[in-house]
Design goal:
Length: 382
């Protein structure tokens, strides 16, 4: 065995030495070329299923300067010449999720629209109808009368890893079908919307990316290197500073499916205002034996929680045995329950561990229709 070992070691050494710097550089360049080709393939594959959304809105009823000041309009002015009477226009993006014309986008892109036009990658334009909007998640579904359309391939946002490539496709600043490349900077970002703008409960848990997202990208896809949609581009913090946010596709898919089927998303709720324990440092210092959970800041009157033994300042640590670390995680777990289902909350109260049962009820946010729309389409998004 010793006789055979030396020639083998010598052969390996000679093989290693025979790889020249030129060969190494060529090998590295081949890797770069393959990566470059991967980005090109994603753009070519996904773009045909991305749409440009144009929206027009009527001006507010009292938007004229004269009306605001309480003065009658000047009769010698033509109505069409008044800039305050001109329809307001908006632009956003979307993605086709069904071949028969269902489009996923953001709620804020199409909210309050009087007319919506969707332009496809091949240049065709269609009038679109809003199938449904879920205000709490900012997810919306549009419908156009078309068939045999290209569709995006939806991925699994739970498998997204921080640091992996992220590619945004959309129409920023009317520059249609722009493709930007970056990375996933973080996951599970909450409290992204400033409190003075966030006037209602939000059910969002964002992916953060440094792929450039600008006005007009909203509603468009954030995809991985495999060309799978992992998020819906929604927000940007500042301009061109590399901090954008996307709704995870698993949440958007879940809500979009029910919007297609019912015209609205029915959400179970408990009726509590909550904060993560990590956001309450004073309480955390007091409850030294508790490592995780969410704090009940308030119990909504006449809610399911108000009919239970749950109290303000309770710390919810588990729901049906599943650990709860963040406020968004609790929302995700409750959303997965059915209306009228009794859930068991493991709580801490005054350093004592207790169990509280709460029966979920349907949450009806203001402004949503009381009756769902009907549909004949029972196909699930894909």
């Amino acid at each position: 065995m010793k006789v055979m070992a030396f020639p083998l070691q010598l052969a390996l050494a000679l093989f290693t030495y025979s790889i020249s710097p030129a060969q190494t550089n060529r090998s590295n360049f081949d890797l770069v070329r393959q990566l470059n080709e991967a980005f090109v393939r994603v753009a070519e594959t996904v773009s045909p299923a991305v749409v440009v959304i144009s929206v027009t809105e009527k001006p507010p009823q009292f938007s004229r300067l004269d009306d605001v000041q309480g003065m009658p309009p000047k009769r010698n002015e033509r109505q069409s010449q008044d800039p305050f009477d001109e329809p307001m226009e908006g632009r956003g993006s979307g993605m086709i999720i069904r071949k028969n014309g269902y489009i996923l986008t953001n709620g804020h892109v199409v909210r309050d629209a009087d007319a919506i036009t969707v332009r496809l990658f091949d240049g065709r334009e269609f009038s679109a109808q809003v199938r449904g909007i879920d205000e709490i998640s900012d997810v919306a579904i549009l419908k156009i009368e078309a068939g045999d359309l290209p569709v995006v391939r939806l991925g699994d946002s739970t498998r997204v890893r921080v640091g992996e490539f992220a590619i945004a496709i959309g129409a920023p600043f009317r520059l249609d079908y722009s493709v930007t490349v970056g990375h996933i900077s973080a996951k599970s970002r909450s409290q992204v919307v400033p409190s003075f703008l966030n006037t209602q409960i939000m059910d969002q848990d964002f992916l953060q990316t440094d792929a450039n997202i600008n006005p007009g990208n909203s509603g468009g896809p954030l995809v991985n290197i495999e060309g799978e949609v992992i998020g819906v581009n929604t927000l940007v913090r500042g301009m061109s500073i590399g901090i954008g946010f996307a709704i995870p596709i698993n949440l958007a898919k879940e809500i979009g499916e029910q919007l297609i089927l019912e015209g609205r998303f029915v959400r179970p709720w408990l009726g509590v205002e909550i904060k993560s324990l990590s956001d309450e440092p004073e309480l955390r210092r007091t409850l030294t034996n508790i490592t995780h959970g969410v704090v009940v800041v308030a119990v909504v009157p006449e809610s399911p929680a108000a009919k239970s033994d749950l109290r303000e300042n309770d710390v919810i640590a588990t729901i049906d045995g599943d650990p709860v670390v963040t406020a968004q995680q609790l929302r995700n777990l409750v959303r997965a329950k059915t209306i009228g289902q009794t859930v068991s909350l493991g709580i801490w109260r005054n350093r004592e561990k207790l169990s509280v049962s709460v029966e979920t009820a349907r949450y009806d946010p203001p402004g949503q229709p009381s009756k769902p729309a009907s549909t004949q389409d029972s196909q699930t998004p894909r």
